[in-house]
Protein: Putative Iad1-indole-3-acetaldehyde dehydrogenase
Amino acid sequence: MAGKATLSFPTGEKSTISTGLFIDNKFVPALDGKTFGVVNPSTGEEIAQVSEASAKDIDVAVKSARKAFKEVWGEKTPASQRGKILMRLADLVEQNNDELARIESLDNGKPFSISSTFDVPSVAANIRYFAGWADKNHGKTIEVDTQSDFHYTRHEPIGVCGQIIPWNFPLLMFAWKIAPALATGNTVVLKTAEQTPLSALKMCELIAEAGVPPGVLNVVSGFGPVAGAAIASHMDIDKVAFTGSTLVGRNIMKAAASSNLKKVTLELGGKSPTIVCDDADLDNAVSWATCGILMNSGQVCCAGSRLFVQDTIYDKFMEKLQEKFTMIKGMTKDGFAKDSFQGPQVSQLQFDRIMEHIETGKKEGATLRQGGNRHGDKGYFIEPTIFENVPVDAKINREEIFGPVLVVNKWKDEEELIARANDTLYGLAAAVHTTHIRKGIEIAHKLQAGTVWINQHNMLNPQVPFGGFKASGIGRELGEYALANYTNVKAVHLALGRQPPI
Ligand code: NAP
Ligand code: MG
Structure:
């Protein structure tokens, strides 16, 4: 029998969830009986033990997904029926909004005020959006020069998809991955991040309740180098989709190449520039730049971590930015505190990595304008931090810190600005703040990034594609573009009276 855990929230509520591996719509223990501990990052205390998948468990999950692909899902369930089931899942997410949000906040540390109004509602919106696509993802008929043939394409499901997700938006990344995969008829084996497996386990109950047939969606908790690696190199997984670090993304691609050349999509890191022009609405720009880096404790792949402020407004802008950061420092608290905006970092490891970056920044000669310290005396909280006068080749200017640490630069000449903004391995996102709309658009078109915001930041919609240029990834999630990641295009050529050549 797989285990259960009762979670106690600071608000007094409790939730009991199953902690096994979810295979064939049943919670089962790992074959070798192993479990691992899950920690509340606001306190550092253990809150649950969950099953830990080994490569053997991945094999079992893949067999279940393969059988479901052949026998019940894929071409066996009418596309409109797949859509209907996903619509039901979206409804169930909405009905369980607060419980899912509480679990997410306890496990990840993010404010409940945000998980309950943003993360979980966005999960429902994403699932519903792709549910709508299920019976609308048609191929084309194609006219060619010879009129004696008929040509058309079909968008067929790829098969069994392996999906590996990170810990920063555990439920939302779950939805981004499963919704397009299931809508297009694939079956799935998904591994959650070791730091944040709990909200997906609650989702598994809803998946069964929504009527997703057994084997269509299998969810395992476990570690990257074991369960994740087994997915990436599995000979019977047809596609792997990954969100996380660039380092691991490279490994996934190598494993896919040296196993069965499974299809790969990657959503990796970023070092995204935020550009402020002297004609920007200053208060707005300060607020968006703050949200751009401090939202989700800086643990956002498209965080605006390199800020470029035009020299003529630099001093005024920085004064206002410092005030905002001071305000957020006062709102850096346990996610269940009413006025929390910035929770803890997700783990001791992430906390240590960020503090190391801050120390390196000081040694590299950057000026620490604000923050830079641990916040409070328990949990993994870090003060909102600003560095100025940062050397171009400093590590803090080059590497993704994935924490509440902003690097600020001054700019004067627009051409030089664009070159500096693009001078990074990454190309996930960028933002421009200006009231001059033509200038905003011109700059947006010159930036090498998959997403550019004008006068906002971090705002994403299920309908609009998201993904990276350069080392930030391969493929697009969200929007109609995401469907291509989960379908094989088949061209059918039908002879209409054409004679054989010999
Ligand atoms: P990570 O190691 O890349 O983790 C992401 C996912 O990949 C997790 O599920 C992880 O498993 C799994 N994984 C790890 N090693 C693997 C392997 N060899 N084969 C297959 N899967 C593997 O990221 P992290 O260590 O948690 O965070 C490190 C950095 O990644 C951050 O500082 C940040 O720069 C970046 N990051 C980016 C995003 C994003 O949204 N683009 C999200 C999170 C992190 P575990 O369960 O064992 O972790
Ligand atoms: Mg990791």
Summary: The chain has a mean pLDDT of 97. The CA atoms of residues 156 and 488 lie 5 Å apart. Residues 112-133 form the longest helix (22 residues). The two ends are 66 Å apart (CA to CA).
